[in-house]
């Protein structure tokens, strides 16, 4: 009589055991998922204070100019929670390059080279194991102090928003990169959350957009600077050379329209015809518009793409906005595109690269990966 009763009791016990086993399996599966697959998302969650504290636990790598001038470094912080604070000795002068590193995030080189500067790059970790050092790697840029200062002061003297990029034609190394209006990255290094929020709202709400790096993050109509591309396409066609005389009337009727294009001031260039080189030197509009129609949109697009238009792989190390030659144009639009109009768009960096290619006997050099020297 005992055996049947024992069997009846074991039936619900087995059910409970199976349920407990299933719950244990689910728990282990969830822990495995969180630790192995979802850990990166949790680490990056802004509510994760441990991760935020860890970011400021060790000194971040310094950012140097080519001559060793320090433009970003870490110093001991007067904080009970955070050990190191980022400092930018050059302030607004180098803001377009350094970006910022703060509780609110990162920008510029600070963001693009996060792995190296934070020390999370495997190469930096191995070095730390070998020599016992802590913190991130030092990053040396190609930027020249004198060129940067000259570009910044020159652009600021105009009193207008804009950007300046200077490139070494032989290597493609960026010697200067300025965007105005600028801001002081040191404003972002406070550990006072309320103060940081006020700074962030003010800068993001500024209609002049000081956080925008106009040199690489936005493209613009290139205007007459695009005549370098049009001239290169003409020479590359084999039908023109520098001495070929081109028509340069006072006005040129755009094909298929009643609209007339005129040179600056409504004057003819030369005596109505002049050598191609002279038309380029005087930046005449009508001969280059006629060249655009003669060469056709495909030839102009091919030459623009040879210079780097319509590609998304340019990084310095920050990603660069695409420079664009429109996909489909009629003859009138093609004429205007030869003058850098009609939806042609280029970043200031791209225009600097094109000019550098001319100075380098036609060889286009891309900025070194990471912008490092």
Keywords:
single chain; 373 residues; alpha+beta; Penicillin-binding protein 2a (Domain 2); Beta-lactamase; 2 domains; 4-stranded mixed beta sheet; two-stranded antiparallel ribbon; 12 strands; elongated
Distance between the termini: 90 Å
Number of separate strands? 12
Strand content: 5-15%
Described by strand count, sense and barrel closure, the largest sheet is: 4 strands, mixed
Determine the CATH superfamily of the largest domain: Penicillin-binding protein 2a (Domain 2)
Query: What's the order of the H and E elements?
Result: HHHEEEHEEHHHEHEEHHEEEEHHHHH
Describe the structure concisely for a colleague.
The chain is an alpha+beta fold and 373 residues long.
Structure description:
- The chain is of the alpha+beta class.
- The protein has 2 domains: 54-205, Penicillin-binding protein 2a (Domain 2), CATH 3.90.1310.10; 223-346, Beta-lactamase.
- Helices cover 42% and strands 12% of the residues.
- The protein contains 15 helices and 12 strands.
- It has helices at residues 2-37, 39-44, 49-55, 95-98, 108-112, 114-118, 122-131, 145-158, 193-205, 227-236, 276-282, 285-295, 297-307, 331-337, 348-359, and strands at residues 63-64, 70-76, 84-87, 101-102, 105-106, 139-140, 162-167, 174-180, 245-247, 251-253, 260-262, 273-275.
- The protein has a 4-stranded mixed beta sheet with strand order 3-2-1-6, with no helix packed on it. A two-stranded antiparallel sheet has the order 4-5.
- The radius of gyration is 30 Å and the shape is elongated.
- The relative contact order is 0.11.
- The mean pLDDT is 88.
């Amino acid at each position: 009589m005992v055996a049947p009763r024992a069997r009846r009791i074991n039936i619900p016990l087995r059910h409970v055991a199976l349920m407990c086993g299933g719950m244990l399996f689910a728990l282990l599966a969830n822990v495995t998922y969180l630790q192995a697959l979802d850990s990166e998302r949790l680490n990056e969650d802004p509510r994760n204070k441990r991760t935020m504290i860890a970011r400021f636990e060790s000194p971040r790598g310094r950012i140097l100019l080519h001559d060793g001038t320090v433009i970003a470094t870490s110093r001991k912080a007067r904080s009970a929670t955070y050990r190191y604070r980022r400092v930018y000795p050059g302030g607004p002068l180098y803001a377009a390059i350094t970006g910022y590193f703060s509780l609110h995030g990162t920008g510029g080189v600070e963001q693009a080279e996060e792995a190296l500067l934070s020390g999370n790059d495997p190469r930096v970790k191995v070095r730390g194991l070998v020599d016992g050092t802590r913190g991130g790697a030092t990053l040396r840029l190609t930027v020249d102090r004198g060129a940067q200062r000259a570009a910044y002061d020159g652009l600021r003297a105009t009193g207008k928003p804009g950007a300046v990029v200077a490139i070494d034609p032989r290597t493609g190394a960026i010697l200067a990169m300025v965007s105005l209006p600028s801001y002081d990255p040191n404003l972002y290094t406070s550990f006072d959350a309320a103060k940081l929020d006020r700074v962030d709202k003010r800068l993001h709400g500024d209609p002049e957009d000081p956080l925008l790096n106009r040199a690489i993050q936005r493209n613009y109509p290139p205007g007459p600077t695009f005549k370098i591309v049009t001239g290169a396409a003409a020479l590359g066609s084999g039908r023109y050379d520098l001495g070929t005389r081109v028509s340069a009337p006072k006005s040129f009727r755009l094909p298929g329209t009643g609209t007339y294009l005129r040179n600056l001031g409504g004057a003819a260039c030369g005596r109505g015809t002049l050598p191609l080189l002279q038309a380029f030197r005087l930046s005449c509009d009508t001969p280059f518009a006629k060249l655009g129609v003669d060469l056709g949109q495909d030839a102009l697009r091919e030459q623009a793409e040879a210079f780097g238009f319509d590609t998304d792989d340019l990084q310095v190390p920050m990603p660069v906005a695409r420079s664009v030659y429109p996909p489909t144009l009629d003859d009138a639009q093609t004429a205007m595109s030869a003058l850098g109009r009609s939806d042609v768009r280029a970043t200031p960096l791209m225009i600097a690269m094109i000019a550098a290619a001319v100075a380098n006997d036609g060889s286009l050099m891309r900025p070194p990966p990471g912008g490092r020297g």
